[in-house]
UniProtKB/TrEMBL annotation:
Top-level taxon of origin: Bacteria
Protein name: HlyD family efflux transporter periplasmic adaptor subunit
Residues in CusB-like beta-barrel domain copies: 232-280
Cellular component terms per the entry's GO annotation: efflux pump complex
């Protein structure tokens, strides 16, 4: 239900200059009229964020409680990784093995280098043998078949040497890549270990704890809700029918049940264009001006967003309006229905811009 509350001494004060009520009806009177849109909402902290787990594990330590103040980078939770230790040890073992495979005493490289040396020795022998047989053939001291056999052996040895040299270089390159990959995995496993130590991103206040020590925590589970402990704003829901009247910079009067004797002032900061189809309302955010309420998360408030202020305008009670723009008036002892031109209005009063004057007698339609 929409309500416009009246607050003495502030923007929504309505000054009455007299009421010409008679037994037969009432006459329009001049009054100060403040037009406002009612909105309900809640108070929330600035810089609000959900503290999420960055790894799977068991909540080992809860270092803060609801209501505590925290500093940026302060340790707030510690998780015990379920399999983290095993993964880190496996990554360390692979990294050490990769280092051993590439160092000067590497058994993998030593075997390939031995094979390369054997191939080099065989190539040298076959090369000498080929030169000797070539000279003998030129002297007609051996047959062409023998020369071709020795030449084939020399070419085979040369190809084998080239292939083993290429294999050694290729293996050395692959071992280097494996070393870099295993090093990255080892560093990443150490970072995962760091993910079990959850810290606050901001200076603020702990509003909610979602997990307790001993509970199993999955990656991206919410652990807590943290927000600014000093800076707060009011989030309002404005009815769809009134949304077109709202503008950034308009004054807002805010009341909260927990402060029955206080009125807070705010100003519209942001208007959201998406309709909430659940309650047919739009979201409007407002910043407090001057005194702030205490930083209670979700504190329920009611507000009036001031649309316009009219000084000494002709008004009638809103309850006398029939439909959208008609009233019953009494003329010459008879009642008849006429149309009026309306101006600003609030929950109680309607500005009359045309159709009535101070001498008109408006009849209550009830």
């Amino acid at each position: 239900m929409k309500t416009v509350f009246v607050l003495e001494g502030i923007l929504l004060t309505t000054v009455f200059y007299g009421c010409n009520r008679t037994e037969e009806g009432t006459s329009p009177t001049y009054k100060d009229l403040t037009e406002a849109v009612y909105a309900s909402g809640s108070v929330f902290p600035r810089n609000e964020y959900k503290v999420l787990a960055n790894a799977d594990g068991i909540l080992q330590q809860q270092l803060v409680s609801e209501g505590d103040s925290v500093k940026r980078n302060q340790l707030v939770f510690v998780l015990e990784g379920i399999t983290q230790g095993a993964r880190e040890q496996a990554a360390a073992n692979i990294y050490r093995q990769s280092q051993a495979n590439l160092n000067t005493n590497s058994p993998v490289l030593a075997e390939l280098e031995a094979q390369l040396q054997t191939a080099q020795t065989r190539l040298a022998n076959d090369s000498v043998n080929y030169v000797r047989y070539r000279d003998l053939y030129q002297q007609n001291a051996t047959s062409k078949a023998e020369l071709e056999r020795v030449q084939l052996a020399y070419q085979t040895s040369r190809n084998d040497f080239a292939a083993r040299r290429s294999s050694l270089q290729r293996t050395r390159n692959q071992l280097y890549v494996d070393l870099q990959n295993s090093r990255s995995q080892y560093i990443a496993s150490g970072q995962d270990q760091g993910n079990t130590r959850i810290r606050s991103f901001v200076d603020g206040k702990v509003y909610e704890i979602s997990k307790e020590p001993g509970e199993v925590v999955r990656r991206n589970d919410q652990l807590a809700l943290i927000g600014s402990g000093r800076e707060v704003f009011v989030q309002l829901a404005v009815d769809e029918s009134d949304f077109g009247k709202i503008r950034v910079g308009q004054d807002v009067i805010v009341k909260a049940d927990v402060y029955p004797d206080k009125v807070f002032k705010a100003i519209v900061r942001k208007i959201y264009p998406k309709l909430n189809r659940v309650d047919q309302s739009f979201r409007v955010d407002a910043d407090f001006v001057g005194e702030l309420p205490d930083a209670y998360y979700g504190l329920t408030v009611e507000a009036n967003i001031v649309i316009s202020q009219k000084n000494r305008v002709l008004t009638i009670p809103k309850s006398y309006v029939v439909g959208n723009d008609s009233v019953w008036v009494k003329e010459n002892g008879e009642a008849r229905k006429i149309r009026i031109e309306k101006g600003a209005e609030n929950f109680d009063l309607v500005q009359v811009k045309g159709g009535l004057n101070e001498k008109s007698i408006v009849v209550n339609p009830e």
